[in-house]
Request: fold
Amino acid sequence: MRLLFDMALDGETWPDPLGDAEATAGTLHVGPLGFFDVLETSLGLGGRVHPNSCRAAALIPALGSVPGFWDESAKKDLLGVARELLRWRDTLWLHGWRSEPLTDRLAQLAEATREVLSGIPDRLLAVLGPAYQWTPANLSGVAYLAGTTRTSTSRWISWMTFTRKPGMARPSSRVTA
Reply:
């Protein structure tokens, strides 16, 4: 199996980011979530996927018990605050923050999100650990649409770097769309 990866390939898109490229047997077109599914399944790491709406709803009790910089906003829109804090936490995790109390606000955010349900950053880190030690037997290579690595976050770039490690079949060329 060969993967064609681009950040835009999850879900439906129009116009098609593949442009004039044709579908081929044995090639799976995937975005970040499709890539997760392939690697998690191959590593035996699958499990329950928590939608962000459920993650935010589960965060609400913590926001009520942990005082923080969001208190005034939470009086007006508790679910909206939970969604925004979750988005901040996930973005920070994708860029290497691990709940270190570097500032008062980060300490409050870390405390409030300590028991958060796992999301994409958590799943990505779970896959990255074993993936560096492992080469999928059924995956012959990964191609990227032109420009993919320039627009991706640092953890996705780490993931793409894994697919280029020694022992992993390298893509023969980049697909330009």
